[in-house]
Amino acid sequence: MKVLMVLTSHDQLGNTGRKTGFWLEELAAPYYIFKDAGAQIVLASPKGGQPPLDPKSNEPDFQTDATRRFEADAEAKKVLANTVRLADVSADDFDTVFYPGGHGPLWDLAESKDSSDLIERFIAANKPIALVCHAPGALRHVKTAEGRPLVEGKKVTGFANTEEAAVGLTEIVPFLVEDELKAKGGIYSSGPDWSSYVVQDGLLITGQNPGSSTAAAQRLVEELGASK
Q1: Which of 22, 27, 139, 221 has the most other CB atoms within 10 Å of its CB?
Q2: Do 224 and 128 touch, CB atoms closer than 8 A?
Q3: Does 164 participate in catalysis according to the annotation?
């Protein structure tokens, strides 16, 4: 099993002067789901190299067993420091792709043609994909083979408007994930704020928030097993 994980390269939280990036739990929890299942894992980002970590995601309140395991894992830290450039990866080389969130993807991955093209190639090859929290925002320009929005008519979830309001960033982010998924014709649903909630519609798996990243990754591994 070869898994590609795509991280943001964007580190500025709008015009606030604060830092953002990827959310550690959303990388660490899936990383070990895949690794413990025997997968080969490649990390990629638009700029390559070390992607920016949202510093808030490594504060004590947000640490988990998976984040602590990652922080103590020299091999994992080396892989993270040397992500490959997104433009240099091919869907042909992987069985699946997983997109961790954090606010960064709303600025770069959501507008990246390399990212949109990659997701389209995975879907065209009948390979499952998963995106969690803010990462479903990266679906905003992804199209079907017929040129329609990928999420149109599909059951999806992602970071809820109520969750964005709770963290005080509704007016800072370039768009709201929930609103954008609905605007593209997605059949959006969510669970209680901050609870694990995962939706699957065919090849597309989406998770609502950081706490959904483990279940989203597990669902992806199950889907890969079923498709063998």
Answers
A1: 22
A2: yes
A3: yes
Catalytic residue among 10, 25, 26, 133: 133
| DSSP codes of every residue in 86-139 | GGG--GGG-SEEEE--SSGGGTTGGG-HHHHHHHHHHHHTT--EEEETTGGGGG
What was the pLDDT predicted at 228?
61
Please tell me the predicted confidence (pLDDT) of residue 125: 97
Strand order in the sheet with 204-207: 84-85, 40-45, 2-6, 96-99, 129-132, 204-207, 198-201
Identify the helix (H) or strand (E) that includes residue 206: strand 204-207
- pLDDT score for 226: 76
Residues 60-84 have pLDDT tens digits of 999 999 999 999 999 999 999 999 9
Q: Is the pLDDT of residue 225 over 90?
A: no
Those residues whose C-beta lies under 8 Å from the C-beta of residue 184, and which sit 6 or more positions away, are 139, 140, 149, 150, 151, 152
Tracing tokens 């069985």 back to the chain, one arrives at 95
- CA dist., res. 12 & res. 14, Å (int): 6
Catalytically annotated residue among 25, 103, 134, 180: 134
* 227 pLDDT more than 90: no
Q: Across-strand partners of 149?
A: 143
Asked if 141 is an active-site residue, the reply is: no
**Given 3-state DSSP classes, what are the helix, strand and coil percentages for the chain, each rounded to the nearest 5?**
40, 20, 40
**Which residue among 25, 26, 163, 164 is the active-site one?**
164
Average pLDDT, the chain: 97
